[in-house]
Amino acid sequence: MSTVQPPTPRTPMEDTPNNITITSWNTKGFSRAVPYLAHLMSSSDIMVIQEHHLYPCELNKIHSIDDQFDALCRSSARLDNISVYDRMGHGGIAILWRRTLSHCVQPQVNLCTDRICVTKLCPSNCLPIYIIGVYLPQRQCQIASFIDIVDELEHIIGVCQHDGVVIMIGDTNCHYGSEFSSRCWGTTTPNANYLLNMIHRRDMNIIDLETNVTGPSYTFYVEGIGQSYIDHCIIDCKITNHVQNVSIMPDEIGNTSDHLPIRLCIECCIPCVDGTVQQRVPKYSWHKMSGNDIIQYQNSVTDMCQSLNLAYNCENGILPVTCIDNYTKSLVSILKYVTIQYVPVVKQSKSLKPYWNQYLTSISREEKLAWHDWTNSGSPRDSDNPLSI
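^ thats the sequence. predicted structure below, dont judge the formating
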């Protein structure tokens, strides 16, 4: 176990950097992890943490670690503030980013759960990068289904891949055996196979299993139980060539968790195929919403805004000045998401030739049916056949 080395501080940046460093660590609790967490943050642009164990009313503690960072935090859905002094917290996830990046970071509150946290990095004139922090259930978990969470995660990844690329990082609770990579060992767990199938469907790759990755070949260790490799970084295959390096960070004296951090350095500006980000902006028919659509729209906006207020600890209506920009971005993101879900899209009618009429439509339909009958009958060529065309 090595000693904690002085970190290489990140210098303030007015513009988006060429490369970004993303670090993920399962803290196994918050209070005792703060010194080492601050150490990791000092050499990271984006920090993802799992199992901070904080109640909703305590999430402001994450914002206080380093005043150079903003954060998007979620507590376990099973934690109620009324029990904050009665029993120890559990679970939880958060993403923190340097305020020098805040001009191009959009927290995706509408896509977050108590096990999945999403932010969108939008570098100028480059492909958007969705950073998804995950804390997936372990095999024996009694409060959440691994399969249900992965299915939900696949839907979220699909939404993100619609206009950008995805970097997913965190505690997956999935161990891969020696058949996958020289860095792997032991037996692949059933949950790992289920997650892998989803990864392949989304055209993604577990980048930390590559042979050029540095550091230990495990991320979890408990004395008397053993080691496992369950923290991973999974990225879109199309951005593999933009990865600078991936490492599992060795254990250090300051590490109070049974997990090792995993770190990714990747190019921040990933150009599109044609050099620009082309997005088709749909038009919405607000006047065509049904009564049920309106109710669902209102309820979804209300629920998500309540979650947003909880995430920013502003239930009393008071929002810190430093959080206004990110809060506004999140609010806009919520409105866009709910609009896509419940508001009908204007469908453009195909333009017809000026000479077209109902008679020609009828003839065209009859011709297509006749062709269908003829091909189904073996395409007869004799002229006296009633199906001959």
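The chain has two domains: 19-267, 286-342.
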